TrEMBL record:
<dbReference type="InterPro" id="IPR006905">
    <property type="entry name" value="Flavin_halogenase"/>
</dbReference>
<dbReference type="GO" id="GO:0016491">
    <property type="term" value="F:oxidoreductase activity"/>
</dbReference>
<dbReference type="InterPro" id="IPR033856">
    <property type="entry name" value="Trp_halogen"/>
</dbReference>
<keyword id="KW-0560">Oxidoreductase</keyword>
<protein>
    <submittedName>
        <fullName>Tryptophan halogenase family protein</fullName>
        <ecNumber>1.14.19.-</ecNumber>
    </submittedName>
</protein>
<dbReference type="InterPro" id="IPR036188">
    <property type="entry name" value="FAD/NAD-bd_sf"/>
</dbReference>
<dbReference type="Pfam" id="PF04820">
    <property type="entry name" value="Trp_halogenase"/>
</dbReference>
<dbReference type="InterPro" id="IPR050816">
    <property type="entry name" value="Flavin-dep_Halogenase_NPB"/>
</dbReference>
Amino acid sequence: MTDKNIRKVLIAGGGTAGWMTAAALAKILGNRHCQVQLVESEEIGTVGVGEATIPQIQLFNRLLGLDENEFLRHTRGTFKLGIEFVDWGRVGTSYIHAFGEVGKDMEAIPFYHYWLKEHLAGRAGEIGDYTLTASAALQGRFMRSVDAGNSPLSNIVYAFHFDAALYARYLREFAEARGVVRTEGKIAHTHLNPDDGFIESVELESGESIEADLFIDCTGFRGLLIEKTLGVGYEDWRHWLPCDRAWAVPCESAGEPLPYTRSTARPAGWQWRIPLQHRIGNGHVYSSRFMGDDEAREILLSNLDGAPLAEPKLLKFTTGKREKFWHRNCVAIGLASGFMEPLESTSIHLVQSAIARLLTLFPNRNFDMEDIDEYNRQTHFEVDRIRDFLILHYSATERDDSEFWNYCRSMALPDTLVQKMAQFKRNGRVVRVDGELFNELSWMEVMVGQGIVPRAYHPLVDVMPDDKLAARMAEIKRVIDRSVAAMPAHSEFIRRHCAAS
């Protein structure tokens, strides 16, 4: 039988996407089976603002076999229990989109339906009062799960904040130690096979030519291979997600690092705050249609917790996705595949899921169309559903204090989002479709947090007598409060386990 296995992979571009891909391929493929080479240029640099993650990042780290404490020391990372959204529904309001369980499901009915009944009757507090990670985040507490039986301390769901540049450097060391070859240089030309249009090689400015079987485009917004060489189009989503620019700047730390990301709505966008061990990452994402660059920069610099540590960096982008993520023998990963603002910290996750999907459907040199089509189908579904979740934050608002928010509040929405919101408004139900990234609890937390109150709750909630329900709700609240009180301060946990030297 003719050997059709992929023997050479060329990754164009480094940064977080490139080195995550290189590290995973090095771990799974092994240098003897397939050579992995990465080409990057120090002159080009990377975007490097993807510093907040969601819990799925732990799966990637476990795939590589990383020690969590060591990883956090190298990246000067902190822990993350959720995202606080400030001023999104109305100015002066806030809520936490927390990770993990909410309350305790009863009689096979999600807890939040019982909470809805009690909350609508004025007998229950905010949903975060019944959520371990939300309560712990606001009190600045953190610990990893322990074996505590039925206690919520047995299942603490968390993610990380880390320095993206240090993470890429850490993964580069990991990948090179396992045989990945790094080449410094800029790609000047890409050569195609005249018969089938597949990429045969890239030529560097130095004149060096590098051939490969499979090419992975991690060149960021440029899309050097997927767009400039193969001409794959781009679907523009700015009519739904109008923000198209961001100023980013690190600043000095102010007090102990909080175990959550903060997103604060501004007149024409929003500002992120990501606490690390050695600094705070900040950015102002905004729409140039509604605000000028100078004003946006001033808003960012006027709302820092500490002195800026660098000059603010301006990023320009177009929210949207590639029409194809895998075309011929080229797969686009990271910003080359599309961009959605980091409102829910999905940037690094999309790199991770693309890598996992590529490994699942890893080709041979036949590049079977059935596998390529399936890769594209799954990726389109994933990013479309994440898109809907991000649009929800903008559309579910009562803000009318700027042209930007008036536009967002009244814009036409995708049919899939209209259906999701309508069903929740009617009866409090959220249906997770085909394993979409955000589950029922995430949708509920954001919709409730931004003022969407369902007209009804699950009818089977009424099977439980009111006095029994009140007692159960009170007990769940007591268990949450006791559990949070047993957790150490976030900063103390870091000092004890993973403080950077």
